[in-house]
């Protein structure tokens, strides 16, 4: 592929290895409300969805959750996500992309405050905070709103934009926005992405080979 104008990254499970602790926090919380779940069950049922989506779907199944459930779960998450490691080589990849003139953005269904917890210690939050898009303030993936906003800000063309995500929601957003897509499966099984027939990447080093010219 040609040198991309813009690369848009999902956050959890792509930039930062946070899917495991996140699923553990949600599983523990929902189990306390009478829905026994293991972390892998959370991953299978809810991967790529917002907490508001999860709350609505579980209340539709008659699970009695408090009105402030999303805030409650985020408080649980923030405790377990402190110190979650970055994906190996991600800062090197970001540096290489920007050195060749490729813009970077983040599009996550998670809240900005959550990204501040996971990306703050490394300096990535301050570096990218003006190029972060959240499903709490934009239409969440699989809708295309965050990707379109990122392309407009960067002046990027859809055909020269790449989305990197570990979920079917991210793949759907890329398709809706008309961008290229790479599935990312360093921290989670590739069984979710394989049925989509997309190219799957397993490390930041491999992704660098694809994107840096």
Key structural traits:
213 residues, alpha/beta, Rossmann fold, DNA polymerase, domain 1, 2 domains, 6-stranded parallel β-sheet, 6 strands, globular, phosphoglycolate phosphatase, HAD-like_hydrolase_sf, HAD-like_sf, PGP-like_dom2, phosphoglycolate phosphatase activity
Main pleated sheet: 6 strands, parallel
Low-confidence stretches: none
CATH architecture of the largest domain: 3-Layer(aba) Sandwich
Query: Helix and strand string, N-terminal first?
Result: EHHHHHEHHEHEHEEH
- Domains (count): 2
| Helix run count | 10
CATH class of the largest domain: Alpha Beta
N-C termini distance? 9 Å
For the biggest β-sheet, the strand order reads 3-2-1-4-5-6
Percent helix, as a range, is 40-55%
Number of strands: 6
> Strand pairing plus helix content: what structural class?
alpha/beta
Q: Tell me the Rg in angstroms.
A: 17 Å
Verbal overview:
With 213 residues, the protein is α/β, with parallel strands linked by helices. The chain has 2 domains: 6-17 and 84-211, Rossmann fold (3-Layer(aba) Sandwich); 19-81, DNA polymerase, domain 1 (Orthogonal Bundle). It has 10 helices and 6 strands. A 6-stranded parallel beta sheet has the order 3-2-1-4-5-6. It is globular. The N and C termini lie close together (9 Å).
């Amino acid at each position: 592929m040609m040198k991309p104008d813009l690369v848009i990254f999902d956050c959890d499970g792509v930039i930062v290895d946070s899917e495991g602790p996140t699923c553990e926090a949600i599983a523990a919380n929902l189990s306390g409300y009478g829905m026994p779940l293991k972390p892998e069950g959370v991953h299978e049922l809810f991967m790529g969805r917002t907490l508001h989506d999860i709350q609505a779907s579980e209340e539709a199944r008659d699970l009695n959750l408090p009105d402030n459930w999303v805030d409650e779960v985020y408080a649980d998450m923030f405790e377990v996500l402190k110190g979650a490691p970055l994906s190996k080589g991600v800062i090197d990849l970001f540096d290489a992309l920007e050195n060749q003139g490729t813009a970077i953005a983040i599009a996550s269904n998670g809240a900005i405050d959550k990204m501040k917890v996971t990306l703050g210690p490394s300096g990535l939050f301050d570096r990218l905070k003006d190029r972060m898009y959240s499903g709490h303030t934009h239409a969440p993936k699989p809708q295309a709103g965050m990707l379109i906003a990122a392309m407009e800000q960067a002046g990027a063309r859809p055909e020269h934009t790449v989305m990197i995500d570990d979920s079917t929601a991210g793949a759907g957003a890329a398709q809706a926005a008309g961008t290229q897509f790479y599935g990312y499966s360093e921290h989670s099984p590739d069984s979710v992405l394989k049925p989509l027939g997309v190219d799957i990447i397993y490390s930041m080093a491999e992704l660098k080979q694809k994107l840096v010219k």
